[in-house]
Amino acid sequence: MLLTITSTHPPATDLGYLLHKNPARSQSFELPVGMAHVFYPEASDERCTAALLLEIDPVGLVRSEGRTTLREYVNDRPYAASSFLSVAISRVFGTALGGKSKDRPELAGRPLQLQARISVLPCHDGEDFLRRLFEPLGYSVGAERHPLDEEFPEWGESPYFTVELSGEVRLRDLLSHLYVLVPVLDDDKHYWVGEDEVDKLLRQGGEWLAGHPEREIIADRYLKHQRRLSDEALSRLMEEVDPEAESAESLDREEEAVEERITLGEQRLGAVVAALKDGEARRVLDLGCGEGKLLRALLQERDFEEIVGVDVSVRSLKRARERLRFDRLPPMQQSRLKLFQGSLIYRDRRLSGYDAAAVVEVIEHFDPPRLAAFERVLFGSARPRTVVLTTPNAEYNANFETLPAGEFRHRDHRFEWSRAEFRAWSEGVAERSGYRVRFLPVGTEDAVVGPPTQMAIFVRESARDQGGDG
Amino acid sequence: MKISLPELCLVVLVGASGSGKSSFAREHFRPTEVLSSDFCRGLVSDDENDQAATRDAFEVLHYIAAKRLAAGRLTVVDATNVQREARAPLVALAREHNVLPVAVVLNLPEKLCHERNRERPDRNFGPHVVARQSRQIRGSRKSLKREGFRHVFVLSSPEEVDSAVVERTRLWNNLKHEHGPFDIIGDVHGCADELISLLDRLGYVVSAAPDGAGYTVRSPERRRAVFLGDLVDRGPKTPDVLRLVMGMVASGDALCIPGNHDVKLARKLRGRDVRIAYGLAETLAQLEEEPPEFRDEVAAFLDGLVGHYVLDGGDLVVAHAGLKESLQGRASGRVRDFALFGETTGETDEFGLPVRYDWAEEYRGRAMVVYGHTPVPEAEWRNKTINIDTGCAFGGKLTALRYPERDLVSVPARHTYYRPAKPFLAVDAAAPPVAEERLHDDLLDIGDVAGKRIIPTRLQRNVTIREENAAAALEVMSRFGIDPRWLVYLPPAMSPSEASQRFDLLEHPAEAFAYYCRQGVPKVICEEKHMGSRAVVVVCRDERTPRARFGVPEGAGACYTRTGRSFFEDAALEDGLLTRLRDALDRTGIWEELDTDWVCLDCEIMPWSAKAAELLRGQYAAVGAAARPALSESLRTLETAASSGRDVGALQERYRERVEAVGRYVAAYRRYSWPVSSLEDLRLAPFHLLATEGAVHTDKDHGWHIGMLTKLCEADPGLLLATSHTTVETTDPESIEAGTRWWEEITDRGGEGMVVKPLDFVAGGKRGIVQPGVKCRGREYLRIIYGPEYTAPGNLERLRSRRLGTKRSLALREFALGIEALERFVRREPLYRVHECVFGVLALESEPVDPRL
Questions:
Q1: B531-607+679-722: CATH number
Q2: ipTM score of complex
Q3: A370 Cβ contact list (under 8 Å, min separation 6)
Q4: Is A41 in the B-facing interface, judged by CB distances under 8 Å?
């Protein structure tokens, strides 16, 4: 990782005084994550360049204990500019960052013609975002994007840029901009996020951040990346099967963003609660409860005496527990609510004997061949009196502006059905299992493509009211 | 007095305080068999005499008693039990668990009891208490039988108590000491001719006595027949069947349990009024021809039949209509009814027949259950149970199951002797025999996989799965797993060799050879390790096999990843691959050679980039994309500095090396990447021929596996890639040298490296089995694992310290589970038993282990 700072303000060698580093000498500094070297590839009165070369120890990053470290040796951290660069700036150029210079105090307070070059800066949001961060601060920005691998052009571009910033700025401001904005662009784990980060941000960005048009996203990204150490066992498996493992939450947010215009989620929950109440359910299951949005709505309704949230993800259940503040619910509320891990393709006695089950936006997460098992677990074995089931209406997708044609609303969806497909499946289930089914549109119905969400309400036929077959 | 107790019963001691119940219990029963109310009082209140704790104490006592009875353990209740209300819940408990309640009454003189109590400082109650208790005992002595106690023993003096002997007797249904082998025969229903043919086919020599008075039967060596009941009704020759079976039972050549038809006939013969239907009329008409003594003999024989048997150490249960686990080896009216009639749901079907409760679908017991009662077109396994009533009297066939071989032997009915109330033969007689029945197998229960589990395996004894790992696997299996009926195996993790101490290498063959030498393995095989993605492939020979053998209605087989996920997102690609493999197998004649309709292969599919495209783009190529400009620009800057006279010599040298290392890293991953647009771009390298019908090929050495698979690969060289290999003697330096050179050649041309395996598929070492394989990866390949610059001085030294213990232990446990899964599948065990093992492998994979090993 290399940062060079070039001054063309004559005499350019004054840069050495401002940085408190003698242009004639090469110096090395030990940092927690490796070494920083400072040297001057050129130093004349016209032009003087200081280089900060950061040598990250790749093995140490993985091996050292106690730090929130990398799990992979194959990692861009030793090469790309990141929060490590900010650490190095504050350690090596701390005085300059504070705006002080023993020998050139006046120069330190003056804007100079400066140029900073970062050999590799990750910017996952593209060049435009890079410009939106630096141009408002008065820089002209030069950016060269690198391909992932020139021998595999089909893989596309990498997120890495070689970046050159030039402008007339005070050195302390240049350093401060880099200190704050490099981690924001990198937008990855910060390995040194701690309690004092807010203070550092205010100290470094205090003067310029308030007036920056992107201040909110800057503050947000700078502070937010304290990853929860979520379920380790699961994440190890997920990495194997899904290298782009993202939290269910962020994927759900994507889906919500697609559907946002009509606050479909809320309409859906309302319709589900109404259908459950209409079936006079007292004891209800929320199958695939996720992080508990429907559970919260059900808890509000006194009609429901027992509410059971079931999900296959331990992580989601944990989050549901937190979001519902389960441990702090009053005992009367707490005793109404149960949460446990379960899978809808394994028969489960704990699901038997309930009045109703809500299966909201769940079936589209099953591979179609597994639907038969789901059908037998729910309609054959658990057999609640009422089943309220929702799924996206694929026909409506054309109305979502942000959703490219042919894509699903959520990356984990294995299918999305048209109304006819959903109807055919539901009627088959009802026929095979002794239920009657009716359909209800959810969300604003489009004259041609129908509603965004489709709902089926299954009611067990009383003639075969004998409970489960299993 | 001799007190004769059934081996499984609930013994209720009845006696006043001071009558010596606890001493009696101590003398005649094991301490853990006795539940004393005083002790339970102490458990809940720290005071054995705290009468306020009585209610809680009895709740505890009843709870423990219930657990013991459910587990089939004789239990003694040591409490006064002088009141009917105290005994009633115990009788109910015994009934609930289908065990016999027995009362042992200590009816000793009041005076004696009172004196004994006076000697005990903690019993400070007056004589009126004992007086009342004695009154209550006298009042209830007569009613005990009416209350439901099957046996009542009364001991009325200290002498009687002292001389009492307790003896435990085997239950009639307990024939665990009979180990077979058996030939279990389904419902005969008066079809004597078919029975004689069947016995003949089973190797029994049946000859009719010249006077027509009976048969003599000589059974094949050590074998015995077991008749599942319903000998009578419907068929033409019920008396002959009875004569034959009664003779075989009398001579010890057969066991017989009753069917509902037999029981009804016995009632009729005893003069009871029964409805003459379902073929009973034919039987009665046939018996009219027989002498009255024969009818009496038949009645006595049928009356003496025991409802069900538990055989072969508890591994085999026979009952006419089957028996769920909780009723096996128990004795009660309910057990007998279930064994005779099964259980119904209370509903009737469109033919007016009662709808049967499908106990077999949920059966998870240890014992194999063989039964009849309901005619089915074909005998079918379901969860370790099998119904072998194939409707002989209805024109089907008469079927026997050979135990322990599990072979089915049938003879067809000569006629349709009787019309069933509902057609029992499948409408589509041409459909493969495994039909809807078997499909029920696919519904797994959460109880089959969730929570902490201990799975017994042949190779490694018990493998424990921790609860949180099972939870993680449940999510992955549910969200991503393919149809579990295809998942007959998941591959184990593999450990690398110990780190090499050579200055520039992390892994080297020397350590792999040395490991096996230390373990006492003289000969190993080295197989080239292909760099792609692991795949398990199940290939079926024809369209019938998926349904007939795997119970899957569609598909030609399956290709899945090491986590049980479908390998290809594109179903057409999978189909194409399976078709090519099937054609190759057709051409090689492997189907015939191994007498099989399916194979399960352990493979690697190349290129790596086909499956790992996201990983390559997001991580491997990305790191190269960042590293190359970063380092080359750093080097250029250093060169500029050096040329202007700065002292950066050492740095410059180091950066030259770093640039080179990164170049090699990029070259390394590029070798395993090429674009894939169709099947033509893929290569599949099979390296284990894991299993085929009737066999898991762990008994063949790797030479056999590679040999068979090389033959297969030659049949389709465009798709299939043979695995190059060599063998090494671990005690011969020259051989080791040659093996090392072989590895160097592979890694020099950019290969990933090799896997060293004992020549035997399963090899024993000093303690249990040894690692089934150890990988030894090449210097360049390891850049993908340990980072582009892992070879730099200072890095290698640190990387050498890596702990292999956890990984190796995990590899063994996963290996044992994977093989166990295949063996269970090949033995045709129920789906849940196979799935348990496969699920276990997945769960173990979520254990925290260094992912680079």
A1: 3.30.470.30
A2: 0.83
A3: A345, B483
A4: yes
